[in-house]
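Here is the promised in-class demo. Please do not try to memorize the tokens; focus on the logic of going from shape to residues.
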């Protein structure tokens, strides 16, 4: 729990730090996914899930920027084994914290 709290604070510090002279852009991300489990002896039934979150990008200069994201991701599926009459639904919920260092090629070409 402490690690998750520290990572969220790090995300907030990077995305809202006091860089008044720099350009900071905020945005949202949302989407859907289809996931499932694929093994040799199972009948695979997929599950639809969602993902959503926020994005902040700090432009360091004309070539470099720093982008941080926090994304909630939900996926899973049904495992149904034919030979052993076994069936289990597995659901995975994740919070992803991503930090990307971007290099912009549009000024080179």
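The designed amino acids, position by position:
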């Amino acid at each position: 729990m402490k690690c998750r709290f520290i990572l969220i604070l790090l995300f907030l510090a990077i995305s809202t730090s006091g860089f008044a002279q720099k350009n900071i852009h905020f945005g949202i991300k949302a989407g859907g996914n289809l996931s499932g489990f694929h093994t040799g002896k199972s009948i695979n039934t997929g599950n639809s899930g969602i993902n959503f979150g926020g994005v902040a990008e700090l432009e360091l200069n004309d070539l470099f920027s720093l982008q941080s994201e926090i994304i909630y991701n939900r996926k899973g599926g049904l495992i149904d084994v034919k030979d052993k009459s076994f069936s289990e639904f597995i659901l995975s919920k994740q919070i992803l914290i991503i930090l990307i260092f971007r290099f912009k090629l549009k000024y080179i070409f």
